[in-house]
Every structure is written in C-alpha cells, then in structure tokens.
Amino acid sequence: MTTQINAAGALLAILTAHPALPTPLVEVRELWQPDGPPEWGLRIALHSSLSDFERWRAALGIDTADIDHRASPSRELTWLIVTARLYGVPVELIGFHDTNEPDEPGR
C-alpha cells in the first residue's frame, strides 16, 4: 500500500495545482514501464474531446514529441497517449476520440 500512497499524493498535487482543468477519469494503478517492472502511478483519461487532452498535456508540461497516436483495428476509435514522470510517479495521459463523432461535440 505504501507504493500507492505516492501515486495518490501525486494525484492530489496535480489536482491542487490545476483545479480548472476538465474533469478526467483517474485511476491509481500499476503502469508498465518500458525499461523496468510495473510501477504504481496515475492513468488520466479524457473521453470528451482531444482539446481537453491538449489542455491537460500543456498544463502538465508534457512534450508533444512524446505523444503516441493509436487506433482500434476498425479505426473508429483513436487515442493519443503519453507517459511522463510527474511528482515522482509515472503519469499516463490518454485522450480518446470516436471518429464517428464531431471533434468538439456541443462546442
């Protein structure tokens, strides 16, 4: 449980520093690391729009060069994903986009 406390502390720090950001789905979970074993961190997922993903990315200071674009086999669902180390833990930021929906629903 001690390792989860670090991730929870990072979540508190991020939400305190950026209270005006769009509300995401947040998970405290183990994240696979490319150069090592899984580590407890945060998954921050945004399902509403890619502009919300961009607002989070910019606020957290994550480099755009590190973003990976992925798609489902049917290409109906695409997502942007990036992992960075923030407040001492890995943070995975994901922005989903349904290609059958407008880019900015309701906006």
Helicity, as a percent range = 25-40%
Distance between the termini: 42 Å
Contiguous helical run count: 2
Strand content: 35-45%
Radius of gyration: 14 Å
Give the biggest sheet.
5 strands, mixed
As residue ranges, the low-confidence spans are: none
Give the number of domains: 1
Output the keywords.
single chain; 107 residues; alpha+beta; 5-stranded mixed sheet; 2 helices
What does this 3D model show about the protein?
The chain is an alpha+beta fold and 107 residues long. The chain has one domain. It contains two helices and five strands, in the order H-E-E-H-E-E-E. The protein has a five-stranded mixed β-sheet. The longest helix is centred in the N-terminal third of the chain and has 16 residues, at 2-17. The termini are far apart.
Summarize the topology.
Blueprint: H1 2-17, E1 25-33, E2 36-46, H2 50-60, E3 68-71, E4 77-86, E5 89-98
Précis, in short:
With 107 residues, the chain is of the alpha+beta class.
